[in-house]
């Protein structure tokens, strides 16, 4: 059993007959009244986000998890297939278990969180950044840069990301996976 003082990003807890992963939290100590913790939880079975407030000292049923490195192999329409980097076993997961499947290309190494009680995979954590090639974008118009102007670009996985006007087709860009936003252009 854990308490609200143990709350951190990535902690997996059992709540309302489901397993949730804490993706955001804030300890609040108002001037009047008791302290509490405001959290954002992601259901590991459905992918839905739930906002919940726990009073200070509230007992939480934490779930023991292990993390393993898996390589993304392919997507067959319904399932995403992964291979364990250590023993080469393969697993398949539904899209709900993935944070940003649209930014994942074949061969990408991700971290899979596995429940130690039943060895079932719970969720997939992407690396902080991925490098993808731009496959389609409009050419930038010269002189159109009075502000931080952006344009949509399609990357090799099919995702659309807003990029600065100087990015062209064939450029490799670094994308922050948590927000799905452009970070920088990558030189080879």
TrEMBL record:
Residue span(s) of domain Translation elongation factor P/YeiP central: 67-122
GO molecular function annotation: translation elongation factor activity
Gene3D superfamilies, sorted: 2.30.30.30, Nucleic acid-binding proteins
Cited Pfam families: EFP, EFP_N, Elong-fact-P_C
Keyword Cytoplasm: yes
Superkingdom assignment: Bacteria
Pathway: Protein biosynthesis; polypeptide chain elongation
GO biological process, one term: peptide biosynthetic process
Entry GO CC: cytosol
Family classification: Belongs to the elongation factor P family.
Database matches in NCBIfam families: efp, PRK00529.1
The protein, known as: Elongation factor P
Name of encoding gene: efp
